[in-house]
Amino acid sequence: MTDGDEGIAVLKEGYVGASAITEGHRRCSRCGCRLSCYNSDSRCGGCQRVPAVLPTRQPRVLPEVWANVGVQAALAARDFGRLCALVRETSGLRQDDMATLTGLSQPFLSMLETGARRLTNIDKIIILLDGLGAPVELTGPMLRPLATAPGDE
Ligand SMILES: [Zn+2]
To answer: Shortest CA distance to 98 belongs to which of 127, 119, 75?
Structure first.
């Protein structure tokens, strides 16, 4: 019983000391809330569960998309609307992700996918394929942007 009593006495002493000296009170380095005296970390329990740097969602076309027979057929048929829809669906992307990747507007991409618009401008086709990261083996060298200047890495 003496052991238990001593433990409580120490805890009480520590607690009183901490509240009496407000400036000495440890605060969460992230949100600034008061840290529990049992918390030896510099952040509160809630903040410890939050990653220091929130991962930003970066849209990305999966490389295996280009092995998809439907994607290859759409590209061979120059059906860029179907190509966009297939690339988007197989990569789990949204139309605004596609807009971010290609620099083409989301309304335009939408019309392209539904067939309301067709992509005929060679420069736009090149931008689209480059943005999606289409491999040169599939597009052929004609549909690739001009090689970047040396040293431009
Ligand atoms: Zn916190």
So the answer is: 127
> How far is ligand 1, taken at its centre, from the CA of residue 43, in Å?
5
Express each pLDDT in 33-64 by its tens digit: 999 888 888 889 888 887 766 666 788 999 99
Q: pLDDT tens for residues 68-93?
A: 999 999 999 999 999 999 999 999 99
**CATH 1.10.20: does it fit domain 63-143?**
no
Instruction: Output the pTM of the full model.
Output: 0.60
Domain ranges across the chain: 2-48, 63-143
Number of H helices, E strands in the chain: 8, 0
Measured in angstroms, how far is the CA atom of residue 51 from the centroid of ligand 1? Answer: 12
